């Protein structure tokens, strides 16, 4: 009889964990589908709050023994486990994991969390069992905190290396490289590229010295400089009302848009380089083109 009751408790705990895990995963998937930054206040609070009432209601509905304890410990364990696992699981599509599908991390966390809570609530588990569960949760937090940053750096380096884009970057006098990312897109979006953003100043309305130069690097097979000038990358960020393109000599092309953005396009070895800025002049951008050099993936990952 005791064995049967124990099995029933485990099954019910697993069901509650799956219900809570699926609910939290759905919130995460909705945030990703709507292009919300994961961790914004609304979604973050929802993910924190939902497990407690939902787990409590499900545990009570299933008539679990000490359902209140199960609901509280299960919710805490789920959130702690989910947070720990997210530190070591690649979140970005850049690393081959689709964000909505990666919400399955929460399903797994819910399942394990409520099974642990079911064991915690059992009188036969004793304090040693509870201390062991608490110790494992703390260990998971500490261990993932230690490996989170090295793993992130390693993945970023790998992403740049396998992006299929030549690794080159210019030097922009007086500007600092503040952003380096791999942009993955299909052919309709212009394919993959590496984005580099150089800035000078604070970037607020009170800083008259602020300047930004943006660079997109693509494989030379993506387009000729002339064709890239006619349809700058990424396509969705440039309207169809752009100014006419003209040659600047030496295979370089220039585009002046009505909104004040100047863009230049050129080939550098096996790379197609696009520079644009709303603050730098055409002469400045053409000068920057001459500074393009090969760069290491680890250098870009460290930006």
**Runs with pLDDT <50, length 5+?**
93-98
**Helix-strand string:** HHHHHHHEEEEHEEEEHEH
Give the strand tally. Answer: 9
Q: Numbering strands along the chain, what is their spatial order in the largest sheet?
A: 2-3-4-8-7-6-5
Largest sheet: 7 strands, antiparallel
Rough outline = elongated
Structural class: alpha+beta
The rounded distance between the terminal residues' Cα atoms is 61 Å
How many H/I helical runs?
Answer: 10
Mean pLDDT: 85
The proportion of residues forming helix, as a percent range, comes to 40-55%
Strand content: 15-25%
Radius of gyration based on Cα positions: 26 Å
Write a structural description.
It is a single chain. The protein is an alpha+beta fold and 303 residues long. Helices cover 50% and strands 17% of the residues. The chain has a seven-stranded antiparallel beta sheet. It has a two-stranded antiparallel sheet with strand order 1-9.
List keywords for this structure.
303 residues, alpha+beta, seven-stranded antiparallel β-sheet, 10 helices, 50% helix, 17% strand
Nutshell version of this structure?
With 303 residues, this protein is an alpha+beta fold. The protein contains ten helices and nine strands.
Describe the secondary-structure layout.
Layout: H1 2-33, H2 41-49, H3 51-61, H4 67-88, H5 99-102, H6 104-121, H7 126-161, E1 168-169, E2 176-183, E3 193-200, E4 211-219, H8 225-230, E5 245-249, E6 252-256, E7 262-268, E8 271-277, H9 282-289, E9 293-294, H10 297-301
Antiparallel strand pairs: 1-9, 2-3, 3-4, 4-8, 5-6, 6-7, 7-8
